Every structure is written in structure tokens, then in C-alpha cells.
């Protein structure tokens, strides 16, 4: 089967698909969801496993996508998740014959019950979100007192054989910015990789402001004040990666706001109800679910994907006067 690059108008080749498999979550993180009042997508409007597999297969077999990431909401609350992973793991590149690199981002609270099943099904990599190592603070950020369950989930992922395991930390000034070195020490002690993410304007309460952003340079400087570190190659990963001189692990920093990586962005996103987005901050969406359920062919679906990618922005424009905040929160878009 012949494939071709899926290229936008700025010459960026898209190879990565982020798939939100549910908008539901067992946490209520303050930068992601309101405490109450979320209107969930009706279950019949959420993409089925068959529909997710079909879109993934179209992207792989026609454009040789090499990786997908399952997100939410919280993906582990989707029933029979290992079965979806198993289906996706059977899709192979028509160019190399290799299977997909399947990753997942999770809050880890229920991971202990399924880590081994996910690994067996074909999940390759895992990111676990954890924004505080202090129980009271964790409960305040997530509105759930479940830090112990998250830490248990991290251990379960290690025991299941996932490596590397990345710990996503959204750094917010005045909230958890005093824990940067704590997470570094936790990562070195537990052989996991902290990734510090700049706070983005996607919080459900619309409380974001630029003064709450802890810039990547400040994060790196804080870590460098205690440890000898050196920059390492990051390929297409959005994180700037750094290794410790004593070879005891590494960490990453994702400068989404202060140094956006839009110029090398290689991803598109699929919401839980089948809306294709070319950026977290997109205003426009392209309805793949309606197309599939109305009998569209794979070529019809390809045409929608290609049109969407052709209209992909140069960048998100955060901090500029022409920035428009998306009407959806992070949980509704897919992290």
C-alpha cells in the first residue's frame, strides 16, 4: 500500500494522533475541570472502539502515522480499555511493517488494577499526571484525596515493565512551584522522569493569567542550582530534555507558553465525540463521527482529515492580542 506525507501549509509533516477516548474523569483538577456542573457527552455520542480503530487505521495506512496517545478525561475510566489497546496494537505500518507506538496519559488513580493488562495488550509508554507530592495540596489541586492511589499506580506501572515512565507536573506559581526539586528527587529515587509543563489557558474556571506561569527557564535554573545538568536531544518530543551529570536519570520541561514548539508540531487531536482538532487551542473542529455514521467511505474521511490539516495554524498565539481562548476546557478537548 502506498502512503504519503500528511503535510500542512507550513511544511510540517503530521505523524502523531492524540485520541481522547472519554471526557469523563475521576478527578476535578483545578486547571482542567470545574468542581461541579460538567455536562458529559452522552455515551451514544462517544466514539466506539471500532470507530477509533478505523480512524487510526486510516491515518497509519495512508499517511504512515507512527504514534498515537490515548487521553481523556481520564482514559482508564473507559470500560474494557485493554481491548481497545489490543485492537490498535494490531495496526502496522505499510512502509516498515512495525506496529504503532501506543502511549497513554493517565492520572494513575486506578492504574494499579490494569497496568499489567495494558502492557500485555500492547501499550508501549505511559505518562502519569501528578502535580503535588503533598497529600493536602494534591487534594486541593485535584479535589480528590487520592495521592496514595496515584503513587501506587506509579509503582504498578514500574512492576508491569513500563519504561520510561514520565510524571507530568503542571507548574503553577503560588500553588506547587516550590515542589520542583521535590519532584526531581522523587524521579531520581524512583527511576521515573518528571516533565514540568507550563500552565496553559485551558482551565475550566477561566482563572489563568500570565503571572501564574512558571517559565521553563526558571524551572531549569531552579534544578540547575542543585544539580549539574546538560541538554540532550529531544527529536520531535515537545519537551526540552536534560540529563543529570551523574547519569541518574533525566527530566523534561515543556515550554508551551514561553517558548512554544508550534513550528515543529507533528500532531492532530481527536475528541471523545469524534471532532478532529489540529491544535489544543483550535477554534475550528471537523466532524469525523457524523461522517462515519452517515456512511462515508475511507476516502471521504481522508478528505476531511486533509482539509483540516491544510488549515492548521502556524501557532497558538498565547500572549498576543489576537489570541482566542477555546470554548472548551482541557478535559473536553483531550490532554
List keywords for this structure.
single chain; twelve-stranded mixed β-sheet; globular; two-stranded antiparallel sheet; 335 residues; TIM Barrel; alpha/beta; 10 helices; 29% helix
State the gist of this model.
With 335 residues, the protein is of the alpha/beta class.
Topology:
Elements: E1 6-7, E2 13-14, E3 16-20, H1 49-63, E4 67-71, H2 81-89, E5 101-106, H3 115-121, E6 125-129, H4 135-142, H5 147-160, E7 165-171, H6 180-190, E8 193-198, H7 216-224, E9 229-232, E10 240-244, E11 250-254, E12 267-270, E13 275-277, E14 286-287, H8 288-293, H9 298-310, H10 330-333
Parallel strand pairs: 3-4, 3-12, 4-5, 5-6, 6-7, 7-8, 8-11
Antiparallel strand pairs: 1-2, 9-10, 10-11, 12-13, 13-14
Helix pairs in contact: 2-3
Architecture overview:
By secondary structure, the protein is an alpha/beta fold. It has one domain (about 5-335): TIM Barrel (Alpha-Beta Barrel). It is built from 10 helices and 14 strands. The chain has a 12-stranded mixed beta sheet. Strands 1-2 form a two-stranded antiparallel sheet. Strand 5 (about 100-105), helix 3 and strand 6 form a beta-alpha-beta unit. The longest helix is centred in the N-terminal third of the chain and has 15 residues, at about 50-65. The chain starts with 5 loop residues before the first strand and ends with a helix. The model has no long low-confidence stretch (mean pLDDT about 90).
Amino acid at each position: 500500500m502506498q502512503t504519503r506525507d500528511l503535510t500542512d501549509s507550513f511544511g510540517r509533516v503530521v505523524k502523531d494522533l492524540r485520541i481522547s477516548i472519554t471526557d469523563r474523569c475521576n478527578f476535578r483538577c483545578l486547571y482542567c475541570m470545574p468542581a461541579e456542573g460538567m455536562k458529559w457527552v452522552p455515551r451514544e455520542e462517544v466514539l466506539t472502539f471500532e470507530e477509533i480503530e478505523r480512524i487510526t487505521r486510516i491515518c497509519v495506512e495512508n499517511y504512515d502515522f507512527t504514534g498515537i496517545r490515548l487521553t481523556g478525561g481520564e482514559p482508564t475510566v473507559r470500560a474494557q480499555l485493554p481491548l481497545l489497546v489490543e485492537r490498535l496494537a494490531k495496526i502496522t505500518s505499510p512502509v516498515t511493517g512495525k506496529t504503532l507506538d501506543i502511549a497513554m496519559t493517565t492520572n494513575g488513580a486506578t492504574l494499579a488494577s490494569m497496568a499489567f493488562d495494558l502492557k500485555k495488550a500492547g501499550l508501549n509508554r505511559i505518562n502519569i499526571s501528578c502535580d503535588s507530592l503533598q497529600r493536602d495540596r494534591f487534594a486541593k489541586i485535584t479535589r480528590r484525596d487520592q495521592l496514595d492511589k496515584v503513587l501506587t499506580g506509579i509503582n504498578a506501572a514500574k512492576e508491569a515493565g513500563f519504561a520510561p515512565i514520565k510524571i507530568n507536573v503542571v507548574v503553577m506559581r503560588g500553588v506547587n512551584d516550590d515542589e520542583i526539586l521535590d519532584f526531581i528527587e522523587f524521579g531520581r529515587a524512583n527511576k521515573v522522569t518528571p516533565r514540568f509543563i507550563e500552565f496553559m489557558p485551558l482551565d475550566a474556571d477561566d482563572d489563568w493569567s500570565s503571572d501564574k506561569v512558571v517559565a521553563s527557564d526558571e524551572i531549569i535554573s531552579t534544578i540547575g542550582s542543585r544539580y549539574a545538568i546538560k541538554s540532550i536531544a529531544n527529536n520531535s518530543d515537545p519537551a526540552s530534555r536534560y540529563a543529570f551529570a551523574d547519569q541518574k536519570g533525566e527530566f523534561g520541561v515543556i515550554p508551551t507558553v514561553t517558548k512554544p514548539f508550534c513550528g515543529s508540531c507533528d500532531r492532530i487531536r481527536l475528541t471523545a465525540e469524534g471532532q478532529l482538532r489540529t491544535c489544543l487551542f483550535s477554534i475550528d473542529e471537523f466532524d469525523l463521527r457524523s461522517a462515519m455514521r452517515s456512511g462515508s467511505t475511507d476516502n471521504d474521511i481522508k478528505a476531511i482529515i486533509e482539509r483540516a490539516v491544510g488549515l492548521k495554524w502556524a501557532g497558538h498565539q498565547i500572549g498576543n492580542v489576537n489570541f482566542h481562548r477555546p470554548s472548551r476546557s482541557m478535559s473536553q478537548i483531550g490532554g
